[in-house]
């Protein structure tokens, strides 16, 4: 019997283990939303947008929530370690799955290197005189080894990393709310002084809001991991459904809530906000002893968590691509339920990125960073287009698979696509992001051309 269109792409995880427990998935969903970008990049966003950074995070958070809902609808219906790459192949064609998967793989491998560098810089600040590259190598060995052994090791690392991140940011929010309301001993309620004074809510006008919006869009990291990881759990459908249904409040509390606390308590133009970050600035303002080192420890945990998650995600995306005939067969070898070759290659490529940052800091490394700058937008666009097409098919052929449904379909899917198009236009207008947009566009076109040529060749064969 010929396969229907909705069954055209395989699940791509038949040889993988199911070693992730529900507690792992729950904490990955909860802590995965707290990416390193929230701690590292939010100070620059506040400096650019002022108090309107809260509005920027609301707008970008709504867009990300819609993306997660669309991805959740497809991942609950068709759980796969390939996640959006497998969905794009099923909905649009093999070339789209090829493009989404390999561009995201390059992004994750590069991010592993960047996060390793960031983590090493924090540790060398505590232990001056020790070489950065050695710390990066140590982190790589630890997380590569953990991912090589078994998926449950990844799950355990992420469980405790996520617990620490959630605990730290929850404590920050509790202290912040008590200070804002004037309940915290030794503090006076600031009222709206910092929101409406110091240049007003929009101190740099619409341009400042745009800069803050672009900064906030790319701060959301790790949201996709739970849809990749769910395929290696005993009950992937319910795992994805729970994660997606709580995505909005997690974004609202952790991102929007912490930005609102920061700009309410501390003047947005305070040098500390840009130099040390809003979290340290707030804790210093509240007189919390050792605030800088405390937050550095939290940022270190966030960076190590991202390294671990990205090695895992890169290996599963690569494995899924190979299982679907979209890459070198060696990467698809799984032993003991783990794609060990893919784990090893992804980790090595991450360390090569680290070496490039030392060897070629002025040409090759910046080019690599620009090339991955807008990959997440390409992925989001393919998610939205895939959901538009798959939803219609599922309603006709397999309505029982619609465990998670996109709200107000298809209207909100089109709203999300319009939002992504707006971000692309804004990136093209800004000199700092224009190069990233064009570099990512070039890589995407090359991958799409290669994927389409492969698709035609296989169809012809």
UniProtKB/TrEMBL annotation:
The keyword Nucleotide-binding is annotated on this UniProt entry: no
Residues in Amino acid permease/ SLC12A domain copies: 24-448
Annotated GO CC locations: membrane
Domain of life, per lineage: Bacteria
Pfam family, one: AA_permease
InterPro entries: AA-permease/SLC12A_dom (IPR004841), Amino_acid_permease_CS (IPR004840)
TM stretches of this protein: 25-47, 53-71, 92-113, 133-151, 163-184, 204-226, 247-266, 286-306, 341-359, 365-385, 406-429, 435-453
Membrane topology: Multi-pass membrane protein
Biological processes, Gene Ontology terms: amino acid transport; transmembrane transport
Location in the cell: Membrane
Assigned keywords, A-Z: Amino-acid transport, Membrane, Transmembrane, Transmembrane helix, Transport
Predominant place of localization: membrane
Similarity comment: family membership: Belongs to the amino acid-polyamine-organocation (APC) superfamily. Amino acid transporter (AAT) (TC 2.A.3.1) family.
Protein name: Amino acid transporter
């Amino acid at each position: 019997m010929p396969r229907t269109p909705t069954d055209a792409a395989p699940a791509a995880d038949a040889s993988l283990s199911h070693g992730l427990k529900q507690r792992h998935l729950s904490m990955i969903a909860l802590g995965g939303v707290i990416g390193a970008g929230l701690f590292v990049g939010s100070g620059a966003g506040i400096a650019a947008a002022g108090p309107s950074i809260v509005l920027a995070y609301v707008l970008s958070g709504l867009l990300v929530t819609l993306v997660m809902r669309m991805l959740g609808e497809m991942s609950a219906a068709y759980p796969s370690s390939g996640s959006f790459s497998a969905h794009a192949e099923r909905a649009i064609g093999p070339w789209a799955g090829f493009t989404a998967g390999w561009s995201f793989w390059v992004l994750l491998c590069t991010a592993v290197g960047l996060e390793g560098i960031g983590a090493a810089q924090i540790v060398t600040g505590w232990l001056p005189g020790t070489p950065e590259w050695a710390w990066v190598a140590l982190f790589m060995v630890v997380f590569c080894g953990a991912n090589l052994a078994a998926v449950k090791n990844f799950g355990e690392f992420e469980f405790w990393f996520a617990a620490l991140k959630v605990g730290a940011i929850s404590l920050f929010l509790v202290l912040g709310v008590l200070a804002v309301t004037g309940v915290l001993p030794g503090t006076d309620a600031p009222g709206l002084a910092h929101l409406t004074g110091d240049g007003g809510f929009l101190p740099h006008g619409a341009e400042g809001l745009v800069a803050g919006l672009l900064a906030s869009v790319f701060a959301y990291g790790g949201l996709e991991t739970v849809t990749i990881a769910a395929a290696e759990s005993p009950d992937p459908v319910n795992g994805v459904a729970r994660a997606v249904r709580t995505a909005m409040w997690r974004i609202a509390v952790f991102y929007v809530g912490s930005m609102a606390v920061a700009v309410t308590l501390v003047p947005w133009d305070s040098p500390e906000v840009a130099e040390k970050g809003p979290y340290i600035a707030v804790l210093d303002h509240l007189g919390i002893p050792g605030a800088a080192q405390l937050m550095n420890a939290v940022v270190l945990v966030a960076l190590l968590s991202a390294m671990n998650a990205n090695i895992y995600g890169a290996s599963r995306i690569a494995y899924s691509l190979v299982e679907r005939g979209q890459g070198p067969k060696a990467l698809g070898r799984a032993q003991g339920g783990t794609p060990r070759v893919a784990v090893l290659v992804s980790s090595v490529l991450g360390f090569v990125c680290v070496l490039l940052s030392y060897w070629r800091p002025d040409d090759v490394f910046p080019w690599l960073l620009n090339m991955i700058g807008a990959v997440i937008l390409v992925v989001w666009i393919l998610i939205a287009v895939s959901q538009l097409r798959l939803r219609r098919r599922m309603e006709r052929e397999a309505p029982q698979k619609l465990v998670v449904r996109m709200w107000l379909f298809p209207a909100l899917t089109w709203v999300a696509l319009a939002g992504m198009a707006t971000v692309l236009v804004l990136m093209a207008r800004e000199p700092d992001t224009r190069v990233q947009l064009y570099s990512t566009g070039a890589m995407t076109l090359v991958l799409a051309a290669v994927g389409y040529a492969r698709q035609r060749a296989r169809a012809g064969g």
